[in-house]
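SAMPLE LOG
Freezer: B-3
Tube label: C17
Construct: single chain, 290 aa
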Amino acid sequence: MAKAINMAEVEKALSGFTIPPQPTVLLSIKAEIESDDPNIKRIAELINQDLGIAGFTLKVVNSVYFGLRRKISSVEHACKFLGLTRVIKLVSSVVLRFTLSEGRTDRFTEKLWQSAGNVANAATLLAQQLRYGTDCADDAYSLGLFHNAGMLLISSQFKDYAKVLKQAHLAGYSMSDAEDQNFQTTHELLGYMIAQSWGLAPELTNVIAYHHSHALILASNDIYEKRLFALLKLAEHMTDENKVLLDLDMDQEWEHHKATILDILELDELALHDLGDYLQQQGVPNRYHA
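STRUCTURE (predicted):
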């Protein structure tokens, strides 16, 4: 496991910010799943209470990323077909998006969810293509959607947030240093607290906490953590996260650490073009598609 989080740093990072609690509907779904005799019909009813969440859940389930051979027509059908563990991971990610975006129509929020969706979809497909299994693919999806959630908390309070990040990239500074200097917090730590509060697995919360702190996560003795981290970084790079979020072509982080990331995934750079073609075929635009 990666280095334990310094709670003093977390307390400092949280100053002035409120971590959104899990909505009642999500707590009710989890309680039903953890009961001695989970009732699938009741779980489907809870998800269906919010038509937006139910509709988006079905949209994701029926996308190519889940690889289903026939269309899922109802939330109850999804629960039966995918299993409750997969459904709760998916619904948690969907609910997070709706919760953090409520009442926000600004361009940065729009771009952030576009990027998060691209990264989540790419990470899932990469995990599948590299034969890491269903659990890893599902966790990669959750990680893709959650990893930059802390940015929404900062940008909601500081309107110049995106501008500061772009200037930091252009000057060669790390994102975390720029955030700490300008806003006395980092989206890594805020994202960690959101993920922990929302009950994500420790492997996911650790990767979120250190996804711009390569030395710390790569020092982990947990192979699964490092694999998820590498999938996230590869997905960010392939989908041009910096381009989507900040209109920047540069990816200094990737250039500095690509050898280690590719080594974890047992890939070489030549394989990225084939993976890019695969992602494009599945509907995910990326920098490696000819």
